[in-house]
Amino acid sequence: MPMALALLEEAYARRGAPPASPKLPAGDRTPVVGHVGADVPVELLTAAGLRALRLTGDPDSGSALGDRYLGRGVDPMARSVLTRLLAGSFGDLDHLVISHDCEASLRLFYALRELRRVEPGTGLPEVYLVDVLHLPHRTTARYNRRRIGEFAARLEAWTGRTLDLAGAVAAHNERRRLLAAAAELRRAVPARLTGRQFLAVANAVLHVDEHIALLERLLAEAGQLEEHAGRRVFLSGSDHDTPHVYEAVESEGYVIVGEDHSFGGPSPEGPSSSGGLDALAEHYHYGGPTAHRATVSERAAHAARAVRHCRAELLVAYSRVGDEAPAWDFPAQRAALDIPAVLLERQEYGRADLSALRKEHPCAV
Fold this sequence. Notes:
By secondary structure, the protein is α/β, with parallel strands linked by helices. It has 14 helices and eight strands.
């Protein structure tokens, strides 16, 4: 395995631990902000000089506390994140930021805010909601610009420093560009990265500058990557904040060459580094067509384009228990494609019942 890929895998294995702090005088530390949801403008966290940690669940550790406060009807990924927060699994977080990217994230925000008020002994930090909406209206754009501006002001109040927005946006755009180049490695025929490997490459727990350096090294070492044959799959539907489902699918001989959830590869198109908060608000307003933010027709059209780009041979739509929205898109997605498609519906968190996949679309490799 090339050294860059090994280091990215190591950083991905540290999910739940914040990226290392830069060297500071003895006794000082850089504040850590835990964040949840696809609509948190991470560029602002970088611009504020904070360490950002996207919080993830753990399908193997149970979610009893999260079930107690959120109820079992909420997406189990959110229930697991709440359980881990209450157990102190993420270490010392100075602040929490939640986005309104889906109903489960919003429910998590309300639960955290109320728990902090009525049970201060939990030790939960201040929680902040970034309420970005996605309706195609001018009034929505104005609303989002105000919310993004308020969040920027809150970060300046937390840190006591002026945001370096242009520098942060430029860095995140460079990371987007490099991740898009890395995504082309698994779109190659045969693929040079598995889906599981790309999940690690995209979600390594690193400061953006360190991530950029390792992505550049990975691309330089691309000639050392193994080739991966197998039936090529585009994975649609629920988020995957852990590698469990990817590992289950690819253990059957498939290769996941693309996906449309928020832990996959980001769009290479980022906000203008000179456009300030206006450009940042516009970027998150028109974010990718995930199951919770786009119409059925938009999702179907996106799937058709992505499948062609990835040279996929099969679409697998994965819908988790408590996250039914992806299943609603499946009939239109299937109708828009010229390749087979299968729906894995009401799946347990971090698990994949592949009986329908094996029966209807067995892998030849």
